[in-house]
Amino acid sequence: MKKIPEVYFKESIQNSLGIEIISFATLRDIFAHPLNHNPFQAHQLKFNVLLLVTEGGEGLHSIDFKEYTFSRQSVILISKDQINRFIDLPKNNEGYLLMFTEDLFLDIGMSFPFLISHFYNNQLYDPIHTLNETHFKDLHDLILKIDQKTRSEKKSVRSEIVYSYVKILLLEIFACREMRNNKTVKTAVTEDFIRFQLLLKRNYAEHKQVQFYAEQLNTSTKKLNAITKATVNRTAKEVIVSHLILEAKKLLITPDVSSKEVAYRLGFEEPTNFSKFFRTHTNMLPSEFTKAYY
Description:
- By secondary structure, the protein is of the alpha+beta class.
- The chain folds into two domains: 6-181, Sandwich (Jelly Rolls), CATH 2.60.120; 188-293, Homeodomain-like (Arc Repressor Mutant, subunit A), CATH 1.10.10.
- It is 49% helix and 17% strand.
- The chain has twelve helices and ten strands.
- The strands form two sheets. Strands 1-3-8-5-6 form a five-stranded mixed β-sheet, with no helix packed on it. Strands 2-9-4-7-10 form a five-stranded antiparallel β-sheet.
- Strand 5 and strand 6 form a beta hairpin.
- It is globular, with a radius of gyration of 20 Å.
- The model has no long low-confidence stretch (mean pLDDT 90).
């Protein structure tokens, strides 16, 4: 089994801002030359990405093993460490790929903490969002301004201007998704759900029962289920299972990690129990998933 390629952000003397924008046309030129990864096969980005599709028909992208369609006026959000690949990128698609480092994202998040917990949260929002014409034009203009400023030779205040535009861009996208999903950033229910997610990320291998997380949150299982239902329309158990399956899939496509090892890493005492669990929720055996994905 080949290793899933890890793609790193490449800074240069000319561009030390932690931001880079390339057009789809440039992206296709890159695809045409040998790379350390094939964009149409699974790879893991070590930085954050925002794609804006400005022209063309319907395409298909996979993010963390789930397929999403996109078209003109779509924004595609891919966060650091997600497994992704293009499935279909129509030849007539045009647009821009904005890449920025995790350090830059966290720096922006110091001023707007909700961006860190919400912006790339695929349980709260789909990673692909279609804009209306007004929002599309606004975001398109912002990306063009960012691109222009990153190429500017006047470096004295360039970084502050670029960072300000990026902040506005992220906030505009966030606001668009909030309006579409009819959600409010800071509600007690949403904040409780975020706390549940953070606990789950730290404890999923050792603790798979709803009762544990309810106790950690000083609430009841009934209340925790009400929180997850109100936020993502799933029970707390379904959220736990979904997270376990995602982590299992990531491990199953990792070289030199057997299904048996995956089972133990995820806290299953017996590999057969893991196989039954995985098959119940995916209709595939772990070995079948690995084979199918490659």
